[in-house]
Amino acid sequence: MGFIKEIMKNRQLYTLAIPGIVFLALFSYIPMFGHLIAFERFQPVKGIWGSEWVGLDNFKFFFGSQDWLRVTFNTVYLNALFLIFGIGIALLLAILINEATSTLLKKISQSLIFLPYFISWLVVSLMIMAFMSTDGLLNQWLGQLGISEVNWYQNAKLWPIILTLVYVWKFSGYYSVIFMAAIVGISNEYYESARIDGATRLQQILHITIPSIRSVIVVLLLLGVGRIFFGDFGMIYGIIGDNSILFPTTDVIDTYSFRALRQLGNFGMSSAVVLYQSIMGIAAILIFNKIAKKIDPESRLF
Amino acid sequence: MTNPSMPVTKDKPKPKMKRNKIKNDQSFGEKAFLTFTYLIIVVFSAVCVIPFWIVLADSFASEASFLKNGYQLLPSEWSLDAYIYLLQGSQLLTSYKNSLIVAIVGTLLAVAITAMFAYVIAHPRVKYRNVLAFLTYLAMVLGGGLVGFYIMIANWLHLKDSIWALILPYLMNPFYAFILVAFYKSLPYEINEAATIDGAGDIKLFFKIILPISTPVIATVSLFYAILYWNDWYLSLLFIDDHNLHPLQLMIRQLISNLNVAAYVGGGASYQVSAPSNSIQLATVCLTIGPIVLLYPFLQKYFVKGITIGAVKG
């Protein structure tokens, strides 16, 4: 009863929310029924309710091959690299830009560093090609130094490093904007009294700046850790595409399930992979939210 | 958390000046530190821009210079062939049109839906606002899962090879919704009460009073949506096969995977020369990121503001 009364009382407000609610239902909540397909031999003509139920067959197939270990490891490993270096280098840049005394340099560098954030991964992938294809700039430079060419796109071992560098290149600006906003909020009085006590710039950074923005760092890390089982599809598929030579180190859960769906047409297994990913994702969020509550109660997510 | 201390820095520009002065007679260590700082900043900034430069410069490289020298910082032989080739064909204009439609229609609808929804979540009189907020957050974390999402759009809504498949799925981004929620929560509640006494309903109040005063944040969120739509190729990869519906991003992808450039770019146009395939890729990229890069200096502050609000609140 209270429910209907509340809806009636604020009906105008709830009306405003209807498109948003419909959107969430259509594109987030109803599609969750798609997880049922993980337990089916799905045939599009028969639909979700008409297809044959096969129990855990799809999961057996996925976990029976070595693929699941590989894609899980790659997803977590790459995300961990992105998170540590992405946030670490952005923090360093934010601090350094903040320390710079020339306003012009500050402004220009901020703009330039932020720029890569705004282009698509496909464009990024073309830029990578300009450097790393066989006749690309890197090989030309190596040649000038008398070092033999490297076949970048055939060498899977190098790609965790390359992808990390690319991630840092694209997202440093974004994260450093967040850090700089936090740094601006630190009261100048701390720095003044530190200077009176004879603290060097480095000491000020280590003992004032970083501790003051600790909670921002923790929140960003936690957000990243919460999504550690979700690979960046646009990035990996945009850059690596269907180059299977590089799969051993770059194939992540998202690209794997995409290929299972779009190239193999295997709805069942793709669905099983996605369900596995969602469950791991929820587990990661719950666990790390708990840890967050312990180390820094203010920065927990919920 | 940041707010109380903000005014302190704003009210006191003088201590900062002093800091600069002090620095001048600082020790050798401080000078070395500053040199190191500048070096890192300059090098990193350069690394960020050089790829943009290469894409621009080499889009004007002749195919002959490409075949001889590959990618270069400065092409050995300049030419406009790629652009002429692109403009003679029909695919570029088709793709540009598609990208523009998706970005404009998508952004307008998305901002409207997101703003209305966020306002309800932020409204203190709505009893179920936390339920709505949680459902939004959960959707952000979980998503629907690729397969269910695909079946919903392709099989249930029958949007395969429809431009709506590129618009509808991004109409409400939870992260942008929370940016708006944070803003609405910061508005004084008296605005609501004053209007309620005047007898205006909530819907009228929202459109007549709340929307106009939230223009800056709306602008920020609109830009985020515009970029999101402009840069997306995931949806078109999943749902668009018809090349008449390819947006620019998918056109770039087609050019990279390079089936038959002349047939794809031309769309019926007949060419005397063979396609300068390398520079065509780069020229398409230039035309795609052109609007972003050109508008960027004027819009940057809005993005910074949006990210900052989002980061502080959530």
UniProtKB/TrEMBL annotation, chain A:
Record localization: Cell membrane
GO cellular component: plasma membrane
Cited Pfam families: BPD_transp_1
Xref: InterPro entries: ABC_transporter_permease (IPR051393), MetI-like (IPR000515), MetI-like_sf (IPR035906)
Residue intervals passing through the bilayer: 12-30, 76-100, 112-132, 158-184, 205-230, 267-288
Membrane topology summary: Multi-pass membrane protein
Gene Ontology BP terms: transmembrane transport
Domain of life from the UniProt record: Bacteria
Span of domain ABC transmembrane type-1: 72-288
UniProt keywords, alphabetically: Cell membrane, Membrane, Transmembrane, Transmembrane helix, Transport
Family from the record: Belongs to the binding-protein-dependent transport system permease family.
Protein name (Swiss-Prot/TrEMBL): Sugar ABC transporter permease
Lineage of the organism: Bacteria, Bacillati, Bacillota, Bacilli, Bacillales
Automatic annotation (TrEMBL), chain B:
Residue segments, region Disordered: 1-21
Boundaries of every ABC transmembrane type-1 domain copy: 96-293
Entry similarity comment: Belongs to the binding-protein-dependent transport system permease family.
PANTHER family per record: ABC TRANSPORTER PERMEASE PROTEIN MG189-RELATED-RELATED, POLYGALACTURONAN_RHAMNOGALACTURONAN TRANSPORT SYSTEM PERMEASE PROTEIN YTCP
PROSITE patterns reported in the protein's UniProt record: ABC_TM1
Assigned keywords, A-Z: Cell membrane, Membrane, Transmembrane, Transmembrane helix, Transport
One annotated Gene Ontology cellular component of this protein: plasma membrane
Protein name per UniProt: ABC transporter permease
Transmembrane segments: 32-56, 100-122, 134-157, 163-184, 205-230, 280-299
Lineage: Bacteria, Bacillati, Bacillota, Bacilli, Bacillales
Subcellular location field: Cell membrane
Coiled coil (UniProt feature): none
Membrane topology: Multi-pass membrane protein
Chief site of localization: membrane
Species, as recorded: Paenibacillus radicis
